[in-house]
Amino acid sequence: MTVITEADLIESVADALQFISYYHPMDYIRALGVAYEAEKSPAAKDAIAQILTNSRMCAEGHRPICQDTGIVTIFVKWGQDCRLDSTRSLQEVIDEGVRKAYLNPENKLRASILADPAFTRRNTKDNTPSVMHVEMVPGNTVSIDVAAKGGGSENKSKFKMMNPSDSIVDWVLEMIPQMGAGWCPPGMLGIGIGGTAEKSMILAKQSLMGAIDMAQLKERGPRNDIEALRIEIYDKVNALGIGAQGLGGLSTILDVKIFDWPTHAASKPVAMIPNCAATRHAHFVLDGSGPVYLEAPKLEEWPDVNWTPDKAAIRVDLDTLTPEVVQTWKHGDRLLLNGKMLTGRDAAHKRIADMLARGEELPVDFRGRVIYYVGPVDPVGDEVVGPAGPTTATRMDKFTRMMLDQGLLAMVGKAERGGDATKAIAEAKSAYLMAVGGAAYLVARAIKGSKVVGFEDLGMEAIYEFEVADFPVTVAVDSAGENVHQLAPLVWREKIAREGLLAPA
Q1: Which of 65, 347, 370, 457 maximizes the CB count within 10 A of its CB?
Q2: For the segment 379-390, what is each residue's pLDDT rounded down to a tens digit?
Q3: Does pTM surpass 0.90?
Q4: CB-neighbour burial class of residue 500 (10 A; exposed 0-12, middle 13-18, buried 19+)
Q5: Same domain assignment for residues 21 and 106
Q6: Which of 188, 169, 411, 371 is nearest to 270 (CA)?
Q7: How far is CA 196 from CA 167, 208, 220, in A?
């Protein structure tokens, strides 16, 4: 019987989680490099360039690809001839590995897991517990897949209990535009079909552990109905023209993975979960001989892409910004922000709303300011701030009018804004600016100073004041309410159909 020691399992999980925090899977990087070369949309090409540049920087610096270092999901296939040498449960041992990874002082990862989710939502401070799935299988080894799933993409998960005759393709094409860009495309779609409601969701998540192989699949042709379905969904989703970061373009997804399971005659449960531009997963096998350490990829395997600011980008002085300047910006404009910028996200906005309702004075004056929706990673070494990419702006939609009433001039986040928020932005003659999700380390290099100015107890959700230099953004909603996330995909959908353009594979 193979003995798996507690120490070996903890060390292997911790190493894998650190590894995936700064190394993309190389199949993703290769596919994204192909998408970059083929992309015709300047805005999407710029976004992909930022993601690729950020990826190489993280690989070199061993810092997180994304500031949202995710909720940990573990798939364990435990050989029946193996024994865990521990007095603790498997969940407890694996969570000790998660704890060790996320508290590593050389690359501390952001703790995003909240206990008591319906009420007090208290941060566990070490990103535990993980979500674990265990299967007992024949054999004398333990096979483990680890993944770290960001909230932006996980929140876009979809499920439907279909009728047996319903079209899966039609449902996917209905859901993708509703998902918007908060899941940070281009990425992958994982689809689970069959079983029960919960089984289909697990299948969808598990399918995302596979390597990107759409190019090989299309080259040899499908060998079964599932492979044919993968190709059909891939082509039709990319034909929607949503593109990188929702800015319009050829590549919205790089692959589609599908797992299925037998189901009840009256049922057809279907789940869909996207993987974002910060795709993070790895696989290792324990055989009782010691811990497993993953082999680092070679830096020369990254595409030769080095993002630099667009020469046509408009430099903006945040310290002298006026409403009149904001009103000159048009949707799609590239800006480089310089000066002092406030931050704030979910918890800060909720506390501001509560304080205003009680008639209390806010700790920060928002008049004439710009706010950045971000929860940064803690800095290490001589860093001013850790990776600090944008969080999904739509979660702040319900607070937008309230913040604009405080004199806010503009907001920075990722993905689209909803109808009510867009209307409020237009009525206030303000603007919403979009930073690239999946470029957190690159973006952090533009932050030259950082200090907490409000709600320090909220940790990464406190209000910071950042000093920024040439911080890159795109005007996503201008002062007239023109919304690039609505307009650009429509343009590219028509262009793709008219010119017969196809996403690369």
Answers
A1: 65
A2: 999 999 999 999
A3: yes
A4: exposed
A5: yes
A6: 169
A7: 18, 19, 33
